[in-house]
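Feature request disguised as a bug report, sorry. It would help if multi-protein outputs had a clear separator. Right now it looks like this:
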Amino acid sequence: MNLRIPGPIPVPEDILETMSNPMINHRGSEFKDILYRTTEGLKTVFGTKAPVYILTGSGTGAMETVIVNTLSKGDKVLSISIGTFGERFGEIAKIYGADVVYLKCLPGTAVAVDQIRNCLDEHPGIKAVLVTHNETSTGVANDLEEISNVVKKEYENKLLLVDGVSSVASLPTYMDLWECDVISTASQKGWMLPPGLAFISFSDFAINAYKKSDMPKFYFDIGQYEKYFKMGQTPWTPAVSLMFALDLALEQILKEGIENVYSRHKEIGQFTRNQVRRIGFSIFPEEKVASNTVTAVNVPDGRQSGELIAFMKTNYDVVLAAGQGELKEKIFRIGHMGKTTRNDIKPVIEGLSKYIS
């Protein structure tokens, strides 16, 4: 099967194999070594010297962790949405009692910095800005550096909270350089791992916000993760097999070099878009904001994505993703995170060319 959805992504065989290693004591020295080694590797990929915490959980769990550890009930926050996951970020904040101002962009577009400025000027009490770096539901990547330049340099005392679930380890991400306060991500994307781990980094400014936060938290309390990290442990039972896999995946990422990882994703993203257009399909977002982790493609007039997806699975054993929400039958998505090669994409293009002919 050629799994070409935007997560979970195909996991290399050697990483799958290492998950079959025997269990170890998660309160012992062997786990401590893995925890410290992987944490340092994660810092390199995040581009930070700030703490990074490893949680057993999903990408949505990572997003919830961001909210409950930095905000208090009644805090006014700006939620920037360019798709399904941006909307989810804001909804989590709202459920926990934040006063959410929504900035919803047109589907297939990235946020413009003037839109952010207008919102921040209109609502001077905003404490935090929530933004999705890479939106897999629409195949759009926001310019996080540009957003940071506005939020962190033009306005004072704003938290920049980033959903990097599908961007970190795939797209250029420099937490310290871009002055991001929290970035969260999850294992089933560019990390080449199965679902089940979340990674989150907090700046000093975010840690200060944590100390004042009054939102309820227990499992996702980063204070507990910091306390136990000093002992070489996690506060709750970790996914030990996934930690073995993370150790090997990070070794491979760091050996390749993170800038090379970014270049590889850029190349396969451009190749996929070019090939899709060559056979007569059109890309959903504008080229300048198209993501290099997933390509969102318009379904031809008179067709539906469900029909196309079934055709590809039945005839080519290729698994594609439909759109989400109002885009469900209007677009389909081709994932190309991790170690995706041109040979992985060519059968997709072959099948799509037959479908459209």
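(second protein starts here, but nothing in the output says so)
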Amino acid sequence: METIETTYTYEQLDDNAKEKVKAWWCEHGIWDDWYEDTYERFKEEGYALGFVIDKMNFTGFYSQGDGACWEGQVDVATWLKTHTEDSIARDAWCALIAEDFCDKHFSIHTRSNHYSHSNTMTCVGWDWVDVDCSDVENSNHYLTKPSIFEGMQYKDLHNLIRSTDFSYTDPNDIEQAAFESAKDYADELYKQLREEYEYLTSEASLIEACEANDWKFNEEGEMV
């Protein structure tokens, strides 16, 4: 007489069998490129914040040194517009950037390292005109593009910025703050990747997959 094996849904299994299925799910249930959607979302959202991301890496999730990092550029004017309050000083900085007082971008690299976290990120120096030097060439830079600052000298506009209570009155201040912000963005990427991974490997995600695929198991928790 043929013996028909009894099959069970995941919910019908006992606790020991469920643990076996959950262990299998954690190891095999997540696809290799599960993080790609998060990567793409972060690239798009980062671009709007002034982060032009070319490459992202992460290691995770529960060991010392785990984290995320990225390489690319910081669009300084966009960063100022999205990370500081509207003010005459911010408008002045954006005008100076548009007039080539300084580079429009500075680069973000990562050190070659076994780890991928925000502290592996490095900032390539942001170049700007030395408005305090005494030579004729640099002391006579004027703004020429249409704005409320048109016709002013670089140095006079920079002095105007320094006379305000704006948080970043010196180029070094902007560079450091934008770099720290870029590292914070990498930390946020890691946080969201970890949350996504934890959901994808969770029992709730397993149950959804079981129901969607009509998976059945034997009494020991093996798929049949």
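Even a blank line would do. Unrelated, but nice: The chain is about 45% helix and 10% strand.
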